[in-house]
Amino acid sequence: MSTEFQRGQMIIVLARWILVLAGLMVALWSPQKLSELQIEVGVLLLVAIANFHLHAQLVQRRPTLPLIARAASIGDLVVITLLVALQGGASSNLYVFYLPALLAIAVAFRTEEAAALASLGVFLYAVVGIYSRVPSDVLLLRLLMLAAVVVIGNTYWRLHRERITSTLSARKEDAQDLFFGQAAALWARWFAVIGGALFVLARATTTDELARNIVPVVALLFMNFYLHGRYLVEQPANRRLTLLASGLDLVLISGLFITWSGKSGLDNPAFILFYPLVFSFALVFPPRIAGAFTLATLALYAGLVLPSGIADTGELKVLVERVLILIAMGGLGTIYWRMVRREVRGNAETSDTHSTLAWRTASAG
Fold first, then answer.
1. How many whole angstroms from its chain centre is CA 198?
2. Do the beta carbons of residue 199 and residue 216 sit within 8 Å?
3. Which residue, 84, 110, 134, sits at the end of a domain?
4. What is the pLDDT of residues 159-185, one digit of tens each?
5. Element (H, E) at 136
6. Rounded CA gap, 303 and 290, in Å?
7. How much is the pTM?
8. Are 161 and 4 in contact (CB under 8 A)?
9. How far is CA 195 from CA 135, 148, 163, 303, 330, in A?
10. What residues make up the domain containing 62?
């Protein structure tokens, strides 16, 4: 079993444990119908048993057949779809469970396989969303963010597989991570621009509202043009500028959240834009900084939601679900970053000219 396949499968196993534990919490928290609860708990326990077997194989360094790995990932997507459907489809918040599942798929499989599996997940939720009459613009925004997670994760996977090599220097490795990891951040921001534009254009009712609400999107657009241009000419943003840009991402998305003209609080669909950003940030910076960014995002979202109030235990459950998955996105990204860094340090390969240029330019800023 190749190292990259084993590394990716470990992320899938961890994401599956998140699905099981969070799913059980949601199922047992104020259940509505006994029949639905029996199905949900039964399915999740079966997933837990299967995952324990796969986890044991990985720990013992026993090979996992690619066919079994693909089948297990398909099973994850089907289980999430079943949970969403049982919880009412349009009214269910469990679609956020797709995010860590697709994250794991993106970093575990080759691009063609990841694209096929991710397409299945997006298709399954699209079917549920259309059938349960999720508003078309909200459904499209959600599907776009699901796709964003896959593109971000697999882009980073390809970069580390093909281009990053060991420099035998912690400082140079940090610079390499900063340079190559910025590709993930750039993709996350482009998806945020597209999603934000959709968010504003679909719901604007007056010219004044459209002109006012599109300002954060335009600001994101121009910022990413500048940063992507520097990246393409191998003069990427340095550490300080990258941190500043990530902070502005949160501010601008908060602007989209605040200017939303529909229902406020938990009903505001803009929150899903935070997930790809938290994931991409965890692929760029060390765990301590990535953890602080995740906590800052959580605090920011809580500050946006709580002023509208939490009406009942049902709304509290929704908030907890979203918070747990946001933590999972940052945590899984950080775990993958650590796995890749450990592998890079273990390699004795000679850095090529391109990666040498990468760390030098990243350091220079």
1. 19
2. no
3. 134
4. 776 655 555 556 666 666 677 778 888
5. helix 136-162
6. 20
7. 0.85
8. yes
9. 15, 10, 30, 22, 20
10. 1-134
